[in-house]
Specification:
This protein has about 550 residues and is mostly helical. The protein folds into three domains: about 300 residues, Alpha Horseshoe (Serine Threonine Protein Phosphatase 5, Tetratricopeptide repeat), CATH 1.25.40; about 60 residues, no CATH class; about 60 residues, no CATH class. It contains 20 helices and eight strands. The strands form three sheets. It has a four-stranded antiparallel sheet with strand order 4-5-7-6, with no helix packed on it. Strand 6 and strand 7 form a beta hairpin. The longest helix has 22 residues. It is globular.
């Protein structure tokens, strides 16, 4: 079957829904899609479910996390800028909340499971359970206690399951799925309907093990007394997890307008240039000449030097060495460059005189916006122009967004083995797993790093590798690496207490009809507005 999906209504709509009054698309609109008939087959529901899952990992929650983690930043004074600076409320993620349950969420997942259980298709059932675990596990990451055991049924006011109980259910679902995908189990599975692995059971089993390891790490802070056991279990699961980049769980996209990557779709809207590179991430990558820079961000200098050209202060060119050069001074009478291209310095900060123009080397041609101190606009890199989103005109938007990867699997093991995270640990083994992850983008192997420095290197590499992935927020809340400065440029927001937000508000629309959803004031006053698995702020 042709690997094709229609994601525009589910995905881009959730992002653009932020435009009106700060609200996302609300639940009834998600549920009542005229292109999605009420009586759909399990196979039709499975296709729609995948589109919903891809969307939920790429849309406004992912964009919010990217900005709060300072991998991206919002500018322009509109809703993106407001989200970046924590100006949010209980309606900010309405659509994302309902996406967990409707329009390809938990309700449809349960329908698919029931149909395939009745049909005796264990493989199809197992893959669907992995998606349910992913869906509900991420929801618990974002909102903490959530409706789950009572969520599917006739009860309009579902009670909230404890977050840690939801994580237990996630582990149980994944264990069931692994068993149901065993070689002796019956059923053909989804085959070509599976937009990730084409029904490959071995790859789904590996992904399930990596997900088990991921969600185990999310319980460590709340279970400090059993941390060593949790880390040991995470190692066991990751050892059976994704074994190479070929096994990465990637969201499917194509260049077709309705199937493009949602990050790319957003970049093509009138709000697209409001999300730019974050200074924290760019600075880390520049410091080590990270080969992923052009894949993640557009350059802040691309024009070539021109002879006898009238330049102004602030103009930028890309020199033949691959560095940015910026005009920092011009002289009378005409501010013209020379007739022959100058010999460019290779050291950042060095200057060269070019007739009546003085150029300063600004290093690699990427820069980021700071959360507190606005940077000169001409040095901030856009997200548009990144090579992974648009490697050439014919494939723009077809990037397969990484959701669960070999690199993550290796870095889970690296953290779990490190002595700083899990004493006594084994720093030698931790370093091996770190270097396995670094080898994927072509970074050189590290040597001789131990203790706190090793853990910092592990989590920093994960911060870079998981760019645009919601999981970055979970890693930060657990380890506080890298060190991030909260937004305080206009003073300390009493809701966030001068800290980076630790959770999302519950859906206001859900709260209007479900008495079990705490009101916003109660949410803010509970546990420092943090989830049960994350009791402590980062410094």
């Amino acid at each position: 079957m042709t690997r094709t999906i229609k994601v525009a209504a589910v995905s881009l709509g959730l992002v653009l829904g932020t435009v009106g009054c700060g609200n996302f698309l609300v639940g009834d609109k998600l549920s009542n899609n005229p292109n999605n008939p009420t009586q759909a087959t399990a196979e039709q529901l499975f296709i729609g479910m995948q589109a919903n899952m891809f969307s939920s990992q790429e849309n406004s929650v992912a964009m919010t996390v990217c900005m709060w983690m300072q991998q991206c930043m919002g500018v322009g004074g509109r809703f993106v800028d407001q989200f970046a600076h924590y100006t949010v409320n209980e309606f900010s993620w309405d659509g994302n909340w309902f996406q967990v349950y409707t329009g390809g969420g938990l309700f449809d997942l349960r329908k698919i499971e029931a149909a395939k259980r009745a049909a005796g298709d264990s493989a199809f059932l197992g893959i669907t359970k992995i998606w349910e675990a992913f869906d509900i596990g991420v929801a618990a990451d974002l909102w903490g206690n959530i409706p789950y055991t009572q969520a599917v049924g006739s009860n309009p006011t579902s009670s909230l399951d404890n977050q840690l109980a939801v994580y237990d259910s996630v582990q149980s679902l994944l264990s069931q799925a692994i068993a149901e995908l065993g070689p002796a189990q019956p059923g053909l599975g989804p085959s070509g309907l599976d937009l990730v692995y084409g029904g490959n059971k071995v790859r789904w089993i590996a992904a399930a093990h990596t997900l088990k390891a991921r969600f185990l790490l999310h319980t460590i802070e709340a279970n400090a007394a059993t941390k060593a056991t949790i880390y040991a279990n995470a190692i066991a699961q990751a050892t059976a997890g994704i074994a190479s980049p070929a096994g990465d769980l990637l969201a499917f996209h194509s260049p077709a307008t309705s199937e493009r990557n949602i990050w790319y779709q957003f970049q093509t809207t009138t709000f697209g240039q409001d999300v730019v590179a974050g200074k924290t991430l760019v600075d880390i990558m520049r410091a080590r000449n990270d080969p992923r820079l052009p894949a993640y961000f557009g350059m802040n200098a691309s024009a070539s030097w021109q002879a006898s050209h009238k330049y102004a202060k602030g103009n930028r060119v890309l020199d033949p060495n691959g560095n940015g050069e910026q005009v920092t001074a011009v002289a009378a009478p005409d501010s013209l460059s020379g007739s022959t291209e100058p010999v460019w310095p290779t050291t950042s900060g060095a200057t060269t005189t070019d007739n009546h123009v003085t150029w300063t080397n600004t290093g690699l041609p990427w820069g980021g916006e700071d959360v507190n101190v606005p940077q000169p606009g001409n040095i901030v890199s856009p997200l548009s122009g990144s090579l992974r989103m648009c490697p050439d005109a014919s494939s723009c938007g077809s990037f397969l967004q990484p959701l669960v990867t070999y690199q993550e699997n290796e870095l889970i093991q690296a953290e779990a083995y490190s002595t700083a995270a899990n004493p006594p640990g084994n720093d030698g083994t931790a370093l091996t797993h770190l270097n396995n992850a670094r080898a994927v983008p072509g970074l050189s192997a590290l040597a001789g790093i131990t203790g706190v420095a090793l853990l910092d290197s592990i989590m920093t590499e994960k911060y870079v590798a998981l760019f645009q992935n919601i999981e970055t927020w979970n890693d930060y809340r657990r380890t506080c690496i890298p060190a991030l400065a909260p937004y305080t440029a206009v003073g300390v927001n009493p809701i966030w207490r001068g800290k980076i937000p630790g959770r999302l508000y519950y859906s206001g629309s859900e709260g209007n009809v479900n008495k079990n959803i705490p009101d916003p004031g109660t949410q803010v006053a509970t546990n420092g507005f943090r989830n049960p698995n994350d009791p402590a702020d980062c410094p």
